[in-house]
Design goal:
disordered N terminus, 14 helices, 487 residues, six-stranded mixed beta sheet, four-stranded mixed beta sheet, 3 domains, 22% strand, 18 strands, alpha+beta, globular
Length: 487
C-alpha cells in the first residue's frame, strides 16, 4: 500500500478553516467518477494540461488513450491490483476492483487480522457495505472503519501504561530517594519515586491523531458524529502529539494479548495519517492531485496467509511468513546482494513441505471470455523462474513443492484443469521440481468469514489436505488429523 512521506498536519492555515475544508472535499465527492477495468470516456479529461509529475501520479492508478470515435480520452484502471482514488482538479476518480464494496471491505479487514463480523451489518453506519452498493467512496469507507475499530477498543480494553513520577510527599509512597530528601525542610516531605498507571500511552496518542485525520474526510453526518464523540473520549485518554511512521511501527511491535484490539485501528491510522494527506488544499497552484492507493497484491498476500493459518489451525502443520533464506544471495565480496524470501512456507517440525507465493493475477485461475486455456493463462517467465529458485533453495530442508496462490473472483467462469495448472521442470532423469497454481475462492471465502461458516472447498483446501496426507504417507504422522475448515 502506497504511503506518501508527507504527513497530515493538525495545524490548519488561517485562510482555510476546518469547516471550509470539509465543504471543499464534500463538493469533490459529489463529482466522484467510477473507473474500472473496462473504462469510460471522460470528455472533461485533458492530460495535456497536466504537468509531468501530475501525469506520473495519475498513471499509478489509471491509464488513458484518445478515442476518435468518442472524441475524447478513454480512461480505465491501469492494473487489476492497483485501486484507490485520485483527485484531478475538482473531480474524484474512484478506481475500483473487480469485486463489491462489501467483499473488498472484508478482504481488507481480514488481511489486517481483524474480526470482520464486528464491521458488517452496522445499522448506525450510513455506508451500505453491500453488493448492491454502487458508490465506492474510499474516504467514507476508511472513516466508518476507523469509527468501528475505536468503538471496539472502548468495548474491550483501553491501553494503559505505568508512568514514573518523582515528587515530595508527606506520606511514604514507592521508593524514597534519601539523598534528595537529606537536608530538605521537614514540612516539604520526602522525595518519593513511584509508578502510576495512566492512559497517556503512545497507542492512545496515535489513535487520537488518526481520529483527527478521519474527521477531515467529510464523511456523512452519522459517521462524523461517531468520530467526534470518539475524538472527545480519546482527548481525555491522551494528549495530541506529532506522530511518525516509526511511532506506528513501535506501537504494532508492542501489541500484546490485551492490546490486540488496537491492531486494526493502527493500520487505519497509518493510512489516514500518511496516505490521506489533504496537502493539496494548501499547496496551491493548478491541477492539484491527491492519491490514495491500495495495492491488492500486498492485501491478498496477507489475506492468503490468514486463510492458511485458519485452515491449518487444528493440524500439526504451521505457516511461516516470509522466512528468509539463511544463505541469501551474496556478491563476490560476501556481502548481501539480494534477499531470497518467498511469501510464506508450510512446515512440519524442522521440515519444509511447501513454498508458496501469492500473486494477485486472476487470469492464472480463470478462463474469462475464452473457451480454452491459452498463453494468457500461463505463468509468466519471471514467476516461473522465481518459484524455481525458491523451491530449489528450500529443498535443503526437505522435499518441497512450489505453489502459486491466485484469487478466483468469478465463480461462474471456467477454470483451468489441474494438468493445465501444473508445471514440471526436469533436471536429469529423476530430479524434478513441480509448481502448481491453486485458487482461493474469494467470494465464497469472504461470505464464510462474514457468516462464521466453514471455509469453501477450493484449491487452497485441497493443497492443505495433500500436504497433510504427504506427512502421513512419509511416516511423520501416525494418523491423519482432519482439518476443520472454519473461519
Amino acid at each position: 500500500m502506497h504511503t506518501p512521506a508527507r504527513q497530515f498536519s493538525s495545524i490548519r492555515p488561517q485562510s482555510m478553516s476546518q469547516s471550509n475544508l470539509m465543504l471543499l472535499e464534500g463538493a469533490l465527492m459529489k463529482n466522484s467518477i467510477r473507473i474500472d477495468g473496462v473504462g469510460s470516456p471522460l470528455r472533461w479529461f485533458d492530460p495535456t494540461s497536466l504537468t509531468d509529475a501530475e501525469r506520473a501520479q495519475l498513471r499509478r492508478l489509471i491509464d488513458w488513450k484518445y478515442s476518435g470515435a468518442d472524441g475524447c480520452y478513454w480512461v480505465k484502471r491501469k492494473a487489476p491490483h492497483k485501486i484507490g482514488r485520485v483527485i484531478c482538479g475538482r473531480r474524484v476518480l474512484s478506481v475500483v476492483p473487480d469485486m463489491s464494496t462489501q467483499d473488498f471491505t472484508t478482504l481488507f479487514l481480514y488481511s489486517l487480522g481483524a474480526d470482520v463480523t464486528r464491521f458488517v451489518d452496522r445499522k448506525s453506519s450510513s455506508i451500505a457495505l453491500s453488493t448492491e452498493d454502487k458508490e465506492f467512496d474510499y474516504s467514507h469507507l476508511l472513516a466508518a472503519l476507523m469509527a468501528t475499530a475505536c468503538e471496539g477498543i472502548l468495548a474491550t480494553y483501553v491501553a494503559k501504561s505505568y508512568e514514573r513520577r518523582t515528587e515530595r510527599l508527606t506520606t511514604l509512597r514507592g521508593r524514597v530517594d534519601w539523598l534528595r530528601s537529606a537536608g530538605a525542610p521537614k514540612h516539604l516531605g520526602l522525595s518519593c519515586e513511584y509508578h502510576e498507571i495512566t492512559t497517556q500511552s503512545l497507542l492512545n496518542q496515535v489513535v487520537l491523531q488518526g481520529l483527527g485525520a478521519a474527521l477531515s474526510l467529510a464523511a456523512p453526518p452519522s459517521i462524523t458524529r461517531r468520530l467526534s464523540k470518539l475524538e472527545f473520549v480519546w482527548q481525555s485518554l491522551g494528549t495530541r502529539r506529532h506522530v511518525t511512521i516509526q511511532d506506528i511501527n513501535s506501537c504494532e511491535r508492542s501489541l500484546n494479548r490485551l492490546t490486540e484490539g488496537y491492531r486494526t485501528a493502527l493500520a487505519l491510522c497509518r493510512m489516514l495519517i500518511f496516505g490521506v494527506s489533504p496537502g493539496d488544499f494548501f499547496r496551491g497552484g493548478r491541477g492539484e492531485l491527491q492519491t490514495l492507493e491500495f495495492d491488492l497484491s500486498g492485501i491478498f498476500e496477507r489475506f492468503a496467509r490468514e486463510v492458511m493459518k485458519a485452515r491449518l489451525y487444528s493440524s500439526p502443520l504451521y505457516v511461516r511468513f516470509q522466512s528468509e533464506d539463511g544463505f541469501q544471495i551474496l556478491d563476490d565480496s560476501g556481502a548481501l546482494y539480494q534477499k531470497a524470501r518467498p511469501d510464506f512456507s508450510i512446515e512440519f517440525q524442522d521440515h519444509t513441505l511447501a513454498v508458496l507465493d501469492a500473486k494477485f493475477k486472476p487470469r492464472y485461475v480463470t478462463l474469462e471470455g475464452q473457451a480454452s486455456f491459452t498463453s494468457k493463462n500461463r505463468l509468466s517467465p519471471s514467476d516461473v523462474y522465481q518459484m524455481l529458485f525458491y523451491v530449489d533453495r528450500a529443498r535443503a530442508r526437505g522435499a518441497v513443492q512450489g505453489y502459486v496462490i491466485c484469487p478466483l473472483l468469478d465463480n461462474t467462469a471456467r477454470r483451468p484443469t489441474k494438468v493445465e495448472s501444473t508445471i514440471v521442470w526436469r533436471r536429469g532423469e529423476s530430479d524434478e521440481i513441480v509448481i502448481q497454481v491453486v485458487d482461493v475462492n474469494i467470494p465464497e471465502t469472504l461470505h464464510a468469514l462474514r457468516t462464521r461458516s466453514d471455509l469453501p472447498r477450493d484449491g487452497l483446501a485441497v493443497l492443505c489436505d495433500e500436504l497433510l496426507a504427504s506427512c502421513v504417507s512419509s511416516g511423520r504422522l501416525l494418523s491423519p488429523s482432519p482439518l476443520r475448515a472454519s473461519s
